[in-house]
Amino acid sequence: MNSKKTFGLIVLVLLLTLMLCSCSSKQVNLSIDVDSSGTSVSAIAGDSVSKVLADNQVEIGENDIVDPALEETIGENSASISVKKSKTVTVVCGKDKKTVELADGTVKDAVEKSGFKVGKADKLNFDETEAVKDGMEIEIKKAVTFYVTQNGKKTKYTATATSVGKALSECKIKFDDDDIVEPSADTKLKSKMEIVVKTVEVKEETKTVTIPFSTEKQYSSSMNSGTTTVSRNGSNGQKQVTYKNTYVDGKLTDSDTVSEKVVKNPVNKIVVYGTKTTTTKATTQRTTAARKTTAPKTTAPKTTVPKTTAPKTTAPKTTAPKTTKGKTIVSKERVEDCDGSGHGYYIITYSDGSVVYQDF
Known about the structure:
The protein is an alpha+beta fold.
């Protein structure tokens, strides 16, 4: 009877031991999340977080953040272990540079930890809400105040760009390769810099231009010397001229002719000049003189009487110039004396308008 009781007690102890061992070694499935990258693992309830991480080759650094904490144990309801590794981040501000370490946080957190101040107009090369990453280099771009004069108006701007051209683009100031930027676009931007932008516009323009008429001279021997007449009136012509014009801030600074096309030819004016020399007065005087020197005729009776001949009077001689160099004879008129002697004189007119009398 006693032996049966003893056997029963032994079996009961063994069952209780098995039950306790079973409870103490119960496995738990959970996830180890390292910087949001998860891995599923199995762990034994009751083990420490530190042991579970070590069993799965997850190294923990001094500045890493582990949740739950390393000394806590894994419970039957544990679902995950979160590990946020420490990141080394460099913050640059101008020529200054600082290195900070943080396991969790954003770009803004890293900048604040660096101690650099960020102004309202300053900019970061990353969004300040972006999570930090190991090896990240955050740059603080400090804003610079400068002035731009364009179309006669001066305006104040701020920009974080490093050159004049990039600063203008950042401030949405329009300019192109033809425009004049002083100082040049590749000049380093400095605080309180004065920048002038001159708008240059190059365009082709066509205009109608007057072609003035000329005056032609013609000569007529049928018109008296010293008289003129217009035989044809002149009229202007027209041509279309295309120019390449350059305007700086709206003012024309250069103009080059590209092409010309005559649309109406000019008609020249013609003026006729007389070359005939008038000798009426001189001839009358000479004829009168000749008449005065002629003796009156005596009428004889039907009977024959000796003729009385008036003394022969010769008209005064005018000697022609010895030289006629540079002029030519235009006309030569023969005038006989009234006494029937066969003598007289020539009226010679030269091309320069001079008149000479020559006896014969």
